[in-house]
Queue: 4 jobs
Job 1
Amino acid sequence: QALQPIHTLIINGAECEPYISCDASLIGSHAQQVVQGALIMQYILQAERCIIAIENNMPATLQALDEATSQESIQIVSVPAIYPTGGEKQLIKVLTGKKIPANALPTDHGVVCQNVGTAFAVYQAIIQGIPLTERIITITGKGINHPGNLRVKIGTPIKYLIEQCGGYSQNIQRLIMGGPMMGIALSSDDIAVIKATNCLLGMTNNELAESQSAMPCIRCGDCSTVCPAELLPQQLYWYGRSGQLEQCQDYQLFDCIECGCCDIVCPSHIPLVQSFRSSKGELIIKEKQAAQAQLAKKRYQNQQQRREKEQQDKIAKAAKRQAAIDKIKAAAAKRKTKGV
Ligand code: SF4
Ligand code: SF4
């Protein structure tokens, strides 16, 4: 399949969730390098245009980028600081007006979207020959004594980083890796930072939404109104709950970016995202099992074909041998008749 030419490179500097400010921090300290990395990527992709997107509530970041971009081929665009504008497909839609359909990749439509951290890593790798071994992480929340953005080595223990930020405050309730909407609650800080860790969030009771028991769906439609992926969360939930996973796929379950907007607005407090994650997991397992069964079937068919061929070869060889014997016998008989 021919590769689709890339016409637009988007460098995403819009923070993906509230509380997180590592991208703004990186641009603030290394705007030149981010811009250089973006230009390298634009050259490699041969993209006509390159856009660096930041949120419209970041005047200092905008100024840093304006100063760093003398190149006309790079546009700096401020996008509304509305969650989840920083999501890949959402940002592409805001910037280009293009809706990337379900099951399609931005590259299928001539667009590549990368994070500012990637642009910086490209600059370091190509210009300075430095591999990616560090990243900036936001360590924040009321549960942390001295929040801030730290440049850390990948593999650093989280416990150590929390200590560097003055430790936990007394009323810490939950430690989350990632943001408040899409992050994962950690049961221990005795683990290491990975390449994808953008935030460590210590939340107190005041910051956490009070958990309420789920009630039946009243089909108000609020969840679909707020869904940035234009899905029907109530339908996905219904099909997932009743085990009709094929219908979940028909309703584009895998387009759900797990932003949590539907969870927040649901008046029945239904844990929708939790249900979508579980349905996705089940579907992935089913697909893997189907692929394994298909592979096993293929192997069996190949083995059968091999055996049949071996059998046919054996028969052909035996027939050939018999024909040779018959020929020799006939020649001997002929000679005998002639009295030789
Ligand atoms: S917001 Fe909640 S109650 Fe309303 S339709 Fe969606 S799932 Fe049902
Ligand atoms: S989490 Fe809910 S609102 Fe967000 S994309 Fe998925 S279905 Fe839509």
Note: The chain has a mean pLDDT of 93.
Job 2
Amino acid sequence: MADSFIQTELHELRKEYQKELPGSELIACHPVSVRVKMTKTEYRQFDVCLQFPEGYPNTSIVVELKSKTIPEKLRDGLTKVCDTETKKLCGKPQLLPVLRLLKQFLDDNPFAICSEELSFIKKELITEKDQIKVKQKSGSISMTIYQDNYYFSFKMIVPEEYPAKQVCIQKVDDNFPKLFSTVFFNQAIEMARQCVEPPLKKKPKDAPFEPKPSLKLIAKFLVEDCIRRYPRDPCQICKDNAFPPDPKSVVTVPSNDRYIERVYCCHLFHHGCLDTFMKTPPFTGGKKCPGCKQRIYHDKWNITPRLAEERWAHQEAKRRELAEVVDFLE
Ligand SMILES: [Zn+2]
Ligand SMILES: [Zn+2]
């Protein structure tokens, strides 16, 4: 009786799988085991192995999922979901229902391929104050990160072809100084692009280029290296926070002493502090960032050490002259 029950299910599967499971390949279809290769995209795919245990259909069909791209943890979770479903089907056909369930999961779940990256984001990057909204169907993750009185909202969309294509990043809203939110954003987009496009200049020793997952990388960069960092980053000269505590009092006039300058090494300075520093000796070897000793390159102070020296000498001479005048007047 069990044998003919299984035979009927196998027959049904052979007849229906193309219609019921489009894009799948039936690799084996025997009473011993059934194997189906399910593919949504190059990366979103798994092999489903099914076995009829003793006593089937009064016992649950045994499901095993194999995949090089879908993380083990997710496959385990999915196997458990299948177990729960098949228990409900005790005594009834289970083969097609389980396959349908798995197919649906693969179709509806762009996050299947990046479940570990997503759980990293939820566990390591987000605090209770922040907000995260994950939409399975559209593959989008919306995040609002709060740091002191600053906030930054952005959206990441995982494309169908992920990770061969990079996550798409969209700016939503923020109260960071405008220049900063633009820079964060452009850098994130550039990093994501580099995950999937080979460098133009290839070094001969480089291994062949393989696209890398970009979701965790980008989220970590934006949250840790940008949004959490800058509201507390000190001016490298006076050591006060470069960002004012109240975002509304961010200075927008570039020549104002409290205007925030971000230099090549990513350290911050108050415009006034940096201006004095750049115009004060020693100049030999160029001015270096006190925080990291990297040379400071900045459009506003783009002059040679020699010119800086001359200007400083000139200014000193003027200051001395003025001091003499003051002495004279006293
Ligand atoms: Zn300062
Ligand atoms: Zn620096």
Note: The chain is about 40% helix and 20% strand.
Job 3
Amino acid sequence: MYPLTTTQHYPRNQWWVAAYSAEVGEALMMREILGERVLLYRTQAGEAVAMSAICPHRAYPLEQGQRVGDAVQCGYHGFTFGPDGTCLRVPSQPGVPQKSSLRRYPVVETAGLVWVWTGDVDMASSAQLPDLAAMGLGRDDWAVEQHALVTINARYTLLIENLLDLSHVSFIHATTIPGGEMVASIPVSVEETAQSITVVRKGQNLPANPLIKVQFPGQEDPVNQDFDAEYISPALVRTGGAMSDAASGRPLGTQNYIHLITPASPTRVHYFVNTARDFAVNNPALGQMQIAMGTKIQPEDIAAIEAIELVLQSDATLPTEISARVDNGALKVRRRLEMQIKSEQATA
Ligand code: FES
Ligand SMILES: [Fe+2]
């Protein structure tokens, strides 16, 4: 499916953010992930668990069932499942039918995020999680804001490509991102490693815009500012970067935007944004400002990619796609993502 040439929409041997930690409690909740209905809750010991939310008896939605201790009882005929998905009880008979367990998803909880592994259970390893601390998540010396989850009516690849092509900042965010009008004119390069593909823009000698002046009181002189767009996996893109005083080179600080991306279905995507900074970490006003900016900026991106999704879903014949030089990074990401999906299919 466009923009990928693979028949499978997403890689499955992958950690994805299922929820913020604060969302998952004793109550049962369901979240659609990669087209599957996933039941999430927390055991009495506080451990987050994830398993199929569809009762294998007659497909009743288990999030509408009830907790019995750490187990879940289906609301229709009372089949009961343990937190590992095992069917423990069928009220109408002794014993349980064969193959009555629910699919279980491996879970790791870190940095206030509940990650689930959607692929081969034997391949799940927390070593495959991204290095969140390097971006400022889950550590005391950075300030982090978790922005409200938004579910977008567009395929996840459109969101990834939106984040990798920051030349759009000068257009759809011209009035909402201070200094955004500069971004499209900064020279672009692409850095590729085994871990990531980064579209690099090193802004030089930029006038201190109103946001910089709030973040770094007293900074009236021009700054150097990195506008990175780093693809780490289909589940995580980091934008933002380091800022310094242009004349002296004195570091000011780093502001990262951590975009956590979880396909809900082939044409919908969950979008969790975390902002993280290593300066003024005890100034909550800066965090509130990031949240307020996000509520203005995000709808602009969402409107754009939902509009594209509608075009893609229409019967219109698409023109032959053309790309600009700034799209090189996004095109490399497409190929890397396709390779990830194809290598899974080859070993399946
Ligand atoms: S549908 Fe769940 S017990 Fe029958
Ligand atoms: Fe944007």
Note: Residues 284-313 form the longest helix (30 residues).
Job 4
Amino acid sequence: MASTSKVALITGGAAGIGYAVAAMLATKGWLVNIVDIDQEKGVVAASIGATFYKADVRDYHSLRNAFDDTMKRHSRLDFVFANAGITDPRNFYEAQTSTLPPEPSLALLDINLKGAVTCTYLAQYYFRLCKQGSQLADFDPTLVIMSSIAGLEVYSPIPLYTAAKHGLVAFARAIATPFKESDGIRVSCICPGPVFTEKRKPSDADRLDMVPMETVCNVVSELISPGGGFGRCLRVLSTGISDV
Ligand SMILES: NC(=O)c1ccc[n+]([C@@H]2O[C@H](COP(=O)([O-])OP(=O)(O)OC[C@H]3O[C@@H](n4cnc5c(N)ncnc54)[C@H](O)[C@@H]3O)[C@@H](O)[C@H]2O)c1
């Protein structure tokens, strides 16, 4: 028997934007499932009544297990937020000529790009399963992919981040129509400017270009609402929100 409450699964939901969206949905009565690599931060999930799954979005089986267990417990899945991502402090430009170049770390691409793609692949399967197995009148499967303003503009100091986030914009646009036509899944992506999270320096709070967390939550809330549309790519800046 499917749960009467809507069910969300959020990657990178133990902190920052993912956590803020998780807390917002929990307040609205959603059953929230947080998938995160950080077990310690995961305990915060309990404080908002969410279920925590320790999983690395690079590890297919642990991610699939989180989706699978969520479906087994609730027999429905309504919203997936492919949000997990990192910034990489390493300098891509610093190769020394005195030694052979060591293998570069491409973890950022594995987490930010491949992790979101894998999450999307699983979301498609479990949304489809949910559609086939239940007759939910309010079933409106929605996937939101977290890109960044770096997915729309070029940031030369952070080329891997820029590449991953551009890739996600293109990926979300590519799948939006097939997902909608085959299974009614609404896919959109969001591209925020800098958002104030606990990782930011306190002095950043005074920066005029910081996007309030509430703004990002409101954008996600709009996308999962019945009129939220699909195939949208939203630039979310402190100066305003616009479809790109
Ligand atoms: N904060 C910003 O200014 C900003 C702006 C635009 C886009 N974004 C994007 O928003 C997303 C969230 O960013 P944030 O600022 O909230 O970051 P954050 O570091 O505060 O939170 C990210 C969460 O993802 C988790 N995570 C990291 N690697 C993971 C992995 N391999 N598997 C599972 N979970 C993992 C972390 O443990 C953490 O809980 C990222 O994709 C980021 O690129 C952030």
Note: The mean pLDDT is 94.
